[in-house]
Amino acid sequence: MVEDPHVQVGAGTVTVTGTGSAEAAPDLMLVSVGVECRAGSVQEAYAAAGGALAAVGSALRGRGVAPADLRTAGLSVRADLAWRDGEGQKLVGYVAAGSLLVRLKDLSSASGTVSEAVRAAGDAARLNSLQLVLSDDSAIRAQARDAAWEDAFHTAGQYAALASATLGRVLSVTDQRPASGPVPLAGLQRTSATESLAVEPGENRVDAAVTVTWELQR
Length: 218
Description:
The protein is about 30% helix and about 45% strand. The protein is α+β, with helices and mostly antiparallel strands and about 220 residues long. This is SIMPL domain-containing protein.
């Protein structure tokens, strides 16, 4: 009896799930730069956040970021509540926040661009997230699928030999693309909000899986 959950041997067939991966250096940085401003009124907080966000956008455009690579992610205002002994929660002002999603295609200058954007908003700046990704992963994904196929083929051939048979024609192929998780930043060091980030791109891995059923020939 076959114990491997990725292998099924039936009447005249063998079904195997193969896995593979490939790696490539990322060529695109995705950044979310936000601002957060507190003030005594909704209008003041909203205006301050809008001004800080505009300063961030201006700094990014000044560094050569194209308008198509900038997208506003929203601007919100909420009440700022604080607990005071004997009084409970009290309204102490309002907080307005917003963010810009940025695509940086030149990794060699991305560190300075992010730092300039953060510097433009001062203490209101928030660096929400930063990811290094592949702008086009089709080629590396194809390599991962090749590796997954070879893994399935090798394993199926081994089980066919154990069954005193050989692999015949392929009866079915199912792409079992693994669920994608967050892509980690390969290397990031932050010294302060106004100093440059030291970014090490490293490599991103793409995984693939394929389930194949072969006919067994005896």
